Amino acid sequence: MEDKEISQAVISRLPRYFRYLGELKDEGIERISSQELSDIMKVTASQIRQDFNNFGGFGQQGYGYKVEYLYEEIGKILGLDKKHNLIIIGAGNLGQALANYMNFERRGFLFKGMFDNNPSLYGKKIREMEVKPMEELSDFVKDNNIDIAVLTIPKTSAVAVAEQLVMDGIKGIWNFAHVDLNVPKNIQVENVHLSDSLMKLTYNINRYEQDGNHVENG
Known about the structure:
- The protein is an alpha/beta fold.
- The chain is 47% helix and 17% strand.
- The protein folds into two domains: 70 residues, Winged helix-like DNA-binding domain superfamily/Winged helix DNA-binding domain (Arc Repressor Mutant, subunit A, Orthogonal Bundle), CATH 1.10.10; 112 residues, NAD(P)-binding Rossmann-like Domain (Rossmann fold, 3-Layer(aba) Sandwich).
- Strands 5-6-4-3-7-8-9 form a seven-stranded mixed beta sheet, with helices on both faces. Strands 1-2 form a two-stranded antiparallel sheet.
């Protein structure tokens, strides 16, 4: 396959393909067509074929896709054939909830440590991880081959912490802080703004209600 730029829209659909294919695999489904996958996922069959063609296609004309093979290949594209060591910075409610979410480990994401600047939390255990002071962060990242840092801290401190993580050699940041981070291009950042997602939901509620009113008044 040639090296080419894959659009963010395609990349954003890959985890969803992976999730649905995993469910099909668990149900014992061995083969599926793009049309059958389309019916399940509510994505057009042509869109599915276009998405998969970015990575070589995976299927055969009139034969469909082998579910387990496709699941494994998309997993490799997503980097899930490797283990990733994570730390959480911010041991509040969100940080603790993420640490306790077991599905991450099943996907190869291994939480190795948790950090906070609140002395009253030091030594508290979250799933066998002791909350450590921020002063120990740099050495921990370097000594434990940490790939990804999860930021669940206020935006006022997120920028400085991100700069420190870059210097410590982190590869990626999963950012729940309410600020977009500017880091070097070789550092991957995924910004998660929970309120944005909620506002998209309310937009769709409003749109549906307005469409319904138009029909009633028409």
